[in-house]
From TrEMBL, chain A:
InterPro entries: ABC2_TM. It is a multi-pass membrane protein. GO terms for cellular component: membrane. GO terms for molecular function: ABC-type transporter activity. It holds the Pfam family ABC2_membrane_3. It is found in: Membrane. Its main location: membrane. It comes from the Bacteria. This is ABC-2 type transporter transmembrane domain-containing protein. Residues 22-342 form the ABC-2 type transporter transmembrane domain. Keywords: Membrane, Transmembrane, Transmembrane helix. The chain crosses the membrane at residues 21-40, 201-218, 239-262, 274-294, 301-321, 347-363. The keyword Magnesium does not apply.
TrEMBL record, chain B:
The lineage of its organism: Bacteria, Bacillati, Bacillota, Bacilli, Bacillales. This is ABC-2 type transporter transmembrane domain-containing protein. The keyword Transmembrane helix applies. It comes from Compostibacillus humi. Keywords: Cell membrane, Membrane, Transmembrane, Transmembrane helix. Its main location: membrane. Residues 20-392 form the ABC-2 type transporter transmembrane domain. InterPro entries: ABC-2_transporter_component, ABC2_TM. Coiled coil: none annotated. GO terms for molecular function: ABC-type transporter activity. The chain crosses the membrane at residues 23-45, 212-234, 255-282, 294-316, 323-348, 376-396.
Length: 369, 405, 225
C-alpha cells in the first residue's frame, strides 16, 4: 500500500496547486459561501414604503415600529411616488396610513385604518401586513381597554393613564412566554440545532471536489501505459482499486478536517452519527466518481457530464430551493439523492451498497489484461 | 486574421453538422433544468394536501379560556394553510412523533389560564420533532406570533384587573369580568381581517410573477446556452497540431473567436425560437423595433459573457480549473442580472456591486422594454463594456501567446 | 530456461493474423522479428507479454505455462511497447520512481539511476516533455527493465531515433543478452538486425522479407506458410 501511496504522490505533486485547490475546496468554499450567505441574508432587506397621510404620534409610532423590523428597508414617500415605484417593482409593497388614523383608533373603530398596496411580485407583503395589523391591534386593544375601564370607573382615569399602565404591565410583568426544544425521545437529540444549510453546501462542494479529482482514472488510462500493467506487481484492476482507496481515504480525512473546522467556526456539534454520515457520503461519491470516470475516455467530456450532474444535484439538494415538501411527498428522492442521508444523519446509506456493487462490476469489466 | 477566422468558422460549422445529433440535448438541458426548478418551487408554494403537517395540541389546563386558545390556533390563517391541528394526550403525541406523524406539539400547561390572569409566568412550550426540524421551527414561529397577540390581550386584561381592584371589586366578580374580557379579546384578535384595506397596485400584464420569471428564466437559459454550446465546441488539439498552426500564424484566439461566434449564433437563434411561444403565451405588446433592441441587448450580453469565459480559458491551463471558474462566473453573472431574484431584495452593497455588471445592465433594459414599454434604450454603457471586454480579451491572449513562444 | 512457442494462432474476427506458429528462444539469444506492416509482429509480442490472448497454441517459459502460471510469469517478462508508455509530465527520475513503486522488485534511487546511466540516459531530472526522441526511447526501455526480466520483448525500440542512440541501445541489448536474458525485438532496419540478432523470425505472407534473409548469413527461422 505504501508503494501505491508513493506512486500517487509522484503524480499528484505535478499539479499540486490545482489538485490541492480541489481537495480543500469543500472546506474553503463552504466557509466562503456560508460567510457570503449570512452576510447577504443579514443585509438583505425588503424595500417597502409607508405613506403617512397624517402627522399624529400614533401614526409616527406605527412608522417607527415598522422601521424597527430587522428585515425591512423603509422609505417615507408621497403616495404617488410610492405607487409609481411599486408599479416599477422598485418597492415590494406600500402601506398608507390614512388621515384620521389616530382619531378612528381612539373612537374604537378598527376597519380600514390602513391601505395596503401590493403587486403580483410582492414577496413580503403578507408578513409585513400581519406585522402592521398586529401593531394596530395593540393600539385598538388599548382603546378597548380604555373604554372598559372608563365604563367601570366613569371617567376616573384618562386615556394617557390607562395606556401608560398597559405599557408598564408589558415591561414589568412576566407575560406569556413560549419555549422551543426538540423532542429527545423521537430522534437522536444530538443533531439538535444542526445547521442544515452548512451541510448541504458542504455536500455540494464535496461532490465537485470528488468528481473533479477522480479525473485521474481517465488521464491514467492512456493505452500505451496500460500495457505496462501486464508486467507489474499490480494489474490495472488492482491499480485502480487501490488508488480509489487512497483517494477515498484522502477525502475521508477532508471530512474530518471539515468537521473540525465547522466545529470551531460554527460550533457544530461533532457526533458519531455526523461523522458516520459524512464518511458514508464521501464513500458513496468516491465510488460513484470511480464508476463514472471508468466509463469515459476524454477528460473534457467527463468534466462536462460532471457539471451537468452537479447542476441537477444542486437543484434537487435543497440548497437553493427547499425540497422538504417534495421529499416528504416522494420519500424515494431521499433514497436516490446522496445528500439526504447526509443531512438527516442516517446510519444506512442505500446508495453505498448500490455503488459498491456497480464498482465491483465495472472493476471486473476493466480487466484489460 | 479574418481569413483564418473564416476558415475556423467553416471548420466548426462542419463539426457541428457532424455532431448535430447531440445539439437537441444541449437545447433541452437548460429548459428541463428550469422546468425541474419550477416543479420544485411549485411544490414549495403549494404543499400537497395529504402532506399537510400535523401539529399536536395538548391541553393540560382544560378551562374555557384554553378552549378559546385552541380555537385561536385552529382558526389562525397562517397556521391553517400549512398545518392541521389535532388535540391529543401527551403520550399519544410522543408516540405519534416517534412514528413521524406529527412535526411538533404544543403544550398548554396546568394553571395556564390562572397564571395568565395573575401575571405570573405562563409558558407555552413547543416541542419539535428532531427529524423534521425545518417544520418544527416554522411552527414555533407561528406559535410565537400568536403568543404575541395573547401577550397584548394579557396586558390589557391585567390593566383592567388592576383598575378594577383599585375600584374595590370583589374576587368573584373580578373573575367573571376577566373571563368575559378574555373571550372578548380572543375574538377581537381573531376578527382582525378588516384593519387593512387591501389593493393591488398595477396592470396585470406587466407585473405578474409568471411574466417576470418567464423573461428572467429565458435570460438565464440564454446565458447557459452560450456556455454549453461554447463548451460543446471544444476540441482537444494535440501539441504538434498547435505547433503546425503556429507556423501558419494561427493564434489560439482565432479558435476561440470562432467558437464564440458559433455559440452566439446558436444561442441567439434558440432564444428566438423559445421567445415566440413565450410571446404568444404571455401577450406582451412588442413591436418589430422592440425585438430588434432586445436582440442587440442579448447580443452584447452574450458577447461579454463569452469574453469572460474565454479569458478564463486563456489564463488557466488546467481544464478542471477552467471549468470550475467558468461555473462560478456563470452563477455570479446570472445572480447579478436580477433575473433569478429581483435586485431590489439584495443588500445595498450587493445591489451596488451588481449594478456594475453587464448582466444587470442588460437585463435592466430588457425589463424596461418588455414590461414598461420603454422606447428609448441606451446601449452606450453595454457597448463600452463590450469594447472594453474585447480589448482585455485580445490583450491577454496576445500576452499569453508571447509568453508561450 | 527457454521460451517455447507451439502452434500459436491468432485472428481478429475473420482476419487470420498467424496460424500454427512454432519457435523457441534460448537464453542469451537475441531474436529479431520481421515482417511487413500488419503482419502481426506487435500482436505476437503482446501475446508473449500477456497483454493479449492467443486463440490456440501453447507458450511456456522456463517450464511455466502461460495459461496457468500467469502470476509467476509476469515477474519474468519485460515489455517495451511501440508507443511511448511513459508519463510526459514527469521527469526521468519521477518516471523511474513511479514504475519502480509498482514493480516486483524494490530498487533504490541509486540502482534506478545506474540503470539509466547504463543506457547512457544521463538527463535524470529533466521532464520527459523536453527530452529528445532517443532519450524518450531509452527511458521507455529502462522502465521495462526495472524488475530484471528474463525475457525482454521490444516493439520497434529504435524507431525514429538517431544512429548514436541506436548504437547505444544495441550495445546495451547485447550486454543484456550476454547476461543470459532472452530478447525478442522487432525492427525494420536490416543493418541493425544483421548486426544484433542471432536469429531472425520472419512472419507475414509477403515473401519479400523471407527472400532477403535467405541470402543473409544470419540463421533464419522459417515459418510454415
Amino acid at each position: 500500500m505504501i508503494s501505491i501511496i508513493k506512486s500517487r504522490w509522484i503524480l499528484w505533486k505535478k499539479h499540486w496547486l490545482a489538485n490541492s485547490l480541489f481537495l480543500f475546496l469543500p472546506v474553503v468554499a463552504t466557509i466562503i459561501t456560508m460567510t457570503l450567505f449570512t452576510n447577504i441574508q443579514e443585509d438583505s432587506k425588503v424595500p417597502i414604503a409607508i405613506v403617512k397621510k397624517e402627522d399624529s404620534p400614533m401614526a409616527d409610532s406605527l412608522y417607527e415600529a415598522a422601521a424597527d423590523l430587522p428585515y425591512i428597508r423603509l422609505f417615507n414617500l408621497s403616495e404617488k411616488e410610492a405607487l409609481i415605484k411599486l408599479e416599477r417593482h422598485e418597492l415590494d409593497s406600500v402601506f398608507v396610513i390614512d388621515s384620521g388614523f389616530a382619531e378612528k383608533i381612539k373612537s374604537g373603530a378598527r376597519n380600514r385604518l390602513i391601505t395596503g398596496y401590493s403587486n403580483h411580485g410582492s414577496f413580503a407583503y403578507t408578513p409585513i401586513k400581519e406585522m402592521l395589523v398586529s401593531y394596530v391591534q395593540t393600539l385598538t386593544a388599548q382603546a378597548k381597554t380604555y373604554y372598559t375601564v372608563d365604563q367601570m370607573a366613569g371617567g376616573k382615569w384618562t386615556w394617557e393613564e390607562v395606556t401608560e399602565k398597559i405599557s408598564d404591565i408589558q415591561t414589568e410583568q412576566q407575560l406569556l412566554e413560549t419555549t422551543f426544544h426538540l423532542n429527545s425521545i423521537a430522534g437522536n437529540a444530538t443533531n439538535e440545532e444542526r445547521n442544515r444549510n452548512l451541510w448541504e453546501i458542504w455536500g455540494y462542494f464535496m461532490f465537485i471536489s470528488i468528481f473533479f479529482l477522480f479525473d485521474w482514472q481517465i488521464k491514467e488510462k492512456k493505452t500505451a501505459i496500460l500495457s505496462r500493467y501486464a508486467m507489474m506487481k499490480y494489474s490495472y484492476q488492482q491499480y485502480v482499486f487501490f488508488h480509489t482507496a487512497v483517494y477515498t481515504f484522502m477525502f475521508v480525512s477532508i471530512c474530518l478536517l471539515s468537521a473540525a473546522m465547522f466545529h470551531m467556526l460554527y460550533e457544530e456539534k461533532i457526533t458519531f452519527s455526523l461523522l458516520w454520515s459524512m464518511v458514508m457520503y464521501t464513500i458513496t461519491l468516491s465510488l460513484a466518481a470511480s464508476i463514472l470516470s471508468a466509463v469515459y475516455r476524454s477528460v473534457y467530456v467527463y468534466y462536462w457530464t460532471v457539471l451537468l450532474i452537479s447542476g441537477v444535484y444542486l437543484i434537487t439538494s435543497g440548497v437553493i430551493i427547499p425540497t422538504d415538501g417534495i421529499v416528504s411527498a416522494y420519500p424515494v428522492i431521499s433514497l436516490v439523492h446522496p445528500v439526504y442521508p447526509l443531512v438527516q444523519e442516517k446510519y444506512f446509506h442505500p446508495l453505498v451498497i448500490l455503488f459498491l456493487g456497480l464498482f465491483l462490476v465495472t472493476q471486473r469489466k476493466q480487466k484489460y489484461f | 486574421m479574418g481569413k483564418q477566422l473564416l476558415l475556423f468558422l467553416q471548420l466548426d460549422g462542419k463539426n457541428i453538422k457532424r455532431k448535430w445529433r447531440s445539439l437537441p440535448l444541449l437545447f433541452l438541458f437548460p429548459v428541463l433544468f428550469t422546468l425541474l426548478s419550477a416543479i420544485l418551487i411549485a411544490f414549495l408554494i403549494h404543499p400537497q394536501e395529504k402532506n399537510r403537517i400535523t401539529v399536536g395540541l395538548i391541553d393540560h389546563d382544560d378551562t374555557p379560556e384554553t378552549e378559546g386558545i385552541v380555537r385561536l390556533f385552529a382558526q389562525s390563517e397562517e397556521m391553517n394553510s400549512l398545518f392541521r391541528i389535532k388535540e391529543m394526550s401527551e403520550s399519544e403525541a410522543e408516540q405519534l412523533m416517534e412514528q413521524g406523524e406529527i412535526s411538533a406539539y404544543i403544550i398548554l400547561p396546568k394553571d395556564f389560564t390562572a397564571n395568565l390572569y395573575e401575571g405570573k409566568s405562563a409558558v407555552l412550550p413547543v416541542i419539535g420533532n428532531p427529524n423534521k426540524q425545518m417544520e418544527s421551527h416554522l411552527i414555533y414561529e407561528i406559535v410565537e406570533s400568536i403568543a404575541r397577540h395573547i401577550r397584548s390581550s394579557q396586558a390589557n386584561i391585567l390593566t383592567i384587573h388592576h383598575f378594577a381592584s383599585e375600584l374595590g371589586k370583589n374576587e368573584e366578580k373580578l373573575q367573571d369580568l376577566l373571563f368575559q374580557q378574555f373571550t372578548d379579546f380572543v375574538f377581537y384578535t381573531l376578527s382582525s381581517g378588516q384593519v387593512i384595506h387591501e389593493k393591488t397596485a398595477n396592470n396585470e400584464a406587466t407585473s405578474s410573477p409568471m411574466n417576470y420569471f418567464s423573461i428572467g428564466g429565458l435570460f438565464i437559459i440564454y446565458t447557459s446556452w452560450l456556455w454549453l454550446v461554447y463548451l460543446y465546441l471544444y476540441r482537444e488539439i494535440d501539441e504538434p497540431l498547435v505547433q503546425r498552426m503556429r507556423l501558419y500564424g494561427v493564434t489560439k484566439l482565432s479558435f476561440l473567436l470562432s467558437r464564440m461566434i458559433w455559440s452566439l449564433f446558436i444561442a441567439i437563434s434558440w432564444t428566438g425560437i423559445l421567445f415566440i411561444p413565450l410571446h404568444l403565451l404571455l401577450d406582451f405588446e412588442l413591436g418589430m423595433i422592440d425585438f430588434l433592441k432586445i436582440f442587440v441587448i442579448y447580443f452584447l450580453h452574450g458577447l461579454l459573457f463569452l469574453c469572460c469565459i474565454c479569458i478564463i480559458e486563456i489564463v488557466f491551463s488546467q481544464e478542471k480549473v477552467q471549468l470550475f471558474l467558468q461555473l462560478i462566473t456563470f452563477v455570479v453573472i446570472s445572480l447579478f442580472s436580477g433575473a433569478i431574484i429581483p435586485a431590489i431584495y439584495f443588500p445595498i452593497w450587493l445591489q451596488e456591486l451588481a449594478s456594475y455588471s453587464f448582466s444587470y445592465e442588460a437585463f435592466y433594459w430588457v425589463r424596461e422594454i418588455v414590461f414598461y414599454g420603454r422606447k428609448f434604450v441606451s446601449f452606450l454603457c453595454l457597448l463600452c463594456m463590450t469594447i472594453g471586454g474585447n480589448i482585455i480579451l485580445f490583450g491577454i491572449s496576445s500576452w499569453k501567446e508571447r509568453l508561450q513562444s | 530456461m527457454m521460451l517455447i512457442v507451439e502452434k500459436l494462432s491468432k485472428s481478429y474476427g475473420k482476419n487470420m493474423i498467424f496460424d500454427n506458429l512454432s519457435f523457441n528462444v534460448h537464453p542469451g539469444e537475441i531474436v529479431g522479428l520481421v515482417g511487413e506492416n500488419g503482419a502481426g509482429k506487435s500482436t505476437l509480442l503482446s501475446i508473449l507479454a500477456m497483454v493479449q490472448k492467443a486463440d490456440a497454441g501453447t507458450i511456456t517459459l522456463n517450464h511455466q505455462c502461460y495459461q496457468t502460471d500467469k502470476k509467476e510469469l509476469r515477474r519474468q517478462i519485460g515489455f517495451v511497447p511501440q508507443d511511448l508508455a511513459i508519463w510526459e509530465q514527469l521527469s526521468v527520475k519521477e518516471n523511474m520512481q513511479f514504475f519502480a513503486q509498482l514493480s516486483w522488485v524494490k530498487k533504490d534511487m541509486a540502482e534506478l539511476k545506474e540503470l539509466c546511466l547504463q543506457m547512457q540516459l544521463e538527463k535524470w531530472d529533466e521532464p520527459v516533455k523536453s527530452l529528445s526522441g532517443g532519450m524518450k526511447r531509452k527511458l521507455n526501455i529502462a522502465i521495462s527493465l526495472i524488475h530484471d526480466p528474463h525475457l525482454l520483448l521490444l516493439d520497434e525500440p529504435t524507431a525514429g531515433i538517431d544512429l548514436k542512440s541506436r548504437t547505444e541501445i544495441g550495445r546495451y541489448l547485447k550486454q543484456l543478452a550476454s547476461q543470459g536474458k532472452m530478447i525478442i525485438y522487432t525492427s525494420h532496419d536490416m543493418d541493425e538486425l544483421r548486426s544484433l540478432c542471432d536469429r531472425v523470425l520472419c512472419i507475414g505472407k509477403d515473401p519479400f522479407y523471407k527472400n532477403i534473409f535467405h541470402e543473409s548469413p544470419i540463421p533464419f527461422l522459417a515459418i510454415p506458410d
